[in-house]
Amino acid sequence: MQFSSSLLENAVNEFSRLPGIGKKTALRLVLHLLKTEPEKVVGFSEAINKMRQEIQYCERCCNISDSRICSICGNPLRRQELICVVENIRDVIAIESTQQFSGTYHVLGGIISPLDGIGPDQLNIESLLARVVKENPDELIFALNPNIQGDTTIYYIQKKLTPTHPNLRVTTIARGIAFGGELEYADEMTLARSLSNRLPVESYINK
């Protein structure tokens, strides 16, 4: 891709560093900014810079925040005794969009994956264990991806918690066949969990 301007080329190269953005998409975005009113472009760049410079991570749950404690942890209407453990911030946003969860979160920042060189020490596991000791929650809900890495992470944390909190209720989100899915295309583990997590027909039909 040839450019008549090094300024344009540099801008395109920076945009193309973003995940999922190729050179053509980057060029389209840059050309859009060139046609945009200057004050709006300044506002755009200032918002990105301010976010990068000032954003914080909640000292309690490791979620992104504008202050030491995020708005979820600081909300007195949330069930503070209920902690949902997730892999990343995108998972918090996904669960919040359902408007079905009223507890708090703990963001691990990843999952245990030896093949990728990610061990327990690189995740926010110790802060979770310390939080459980300090707050003594009623329930810990694991909302991790249903794969080997996710299950390994759950198993590791549960083993760490058992000696000190043997009566802590530890649960995971239900896993099964997605609505509209076909059994023949489901993997064996998903199908097995669908059978083990089966519901009474009347409760399913009435939903």
List keywords for this structure.
207 residues; alpha/beta; Helicase, Ruva Protein, domain 3; Dna Topoisomerase Vi A Subunit, Chain: A, domain 2; 8 helices
Anisotropy-based shape = globular
CATH topology heading of the domain at 78-173: Dna Topoisomerase Vi A Subunit, Chain: A, domain 2
Main pleated-sheet profile: 4 strands, parallel
Indicate the radius of gyration in whole angstroms.
Answer: 22 Å
CATH architectural grouping of the domain at 78-173: 3-Layer(aba) Sandwich
Given as residue ranges, the uncertain stretches (5+ residues, pLDDT < 50) are: none
Question: What structural class do the secondary elements suggest?
Answer: alpha/beta
Distance between the termini: 54 Å
**Physical arrangement of strands within the biggest beta sheet:** 4-3-5-6
Percent helix? 40-55%
* Total beta-strand segments: 6
Beta-strand share of residues? 5-15%
What is the CATH class of the domain at 78-173? Answer: Alpha Beta
Number of helices, counting only DSSP H or I runs of 4 residues or more? 8
Summarize the helix and strand pattern as letters.
Answer: HHHEEEHEHEHEHH
Q: Provide mean pLDDT, rounded.
A: 90
Walk me through the structure:
It is a single chain. It contains eight helices and six strands, in the order H-H-H-E-E-E-H-E-H-E-H-E-H-H. With 207 residues, the chain is an alpha/beta fold. Among the domains are: 6-52, RecR Domain 1 (Helicase, Ruva Protein, domain 3, Orthogonal Bundle), CATH 1.10.8.420; 78-173, Dna Topoisomerase Vi A Subunit, Chain: A, domain 2 (3-Layer(aba) Sandwich), CATH 3.40.1360.10. The strands form two sheets. A four-stranded parallel sheet has the order 4-3-5-6. It has a two-stranded antiparallel sheet with strand order 1-2. The radius of gyration is 22 Å and the shape is globular.
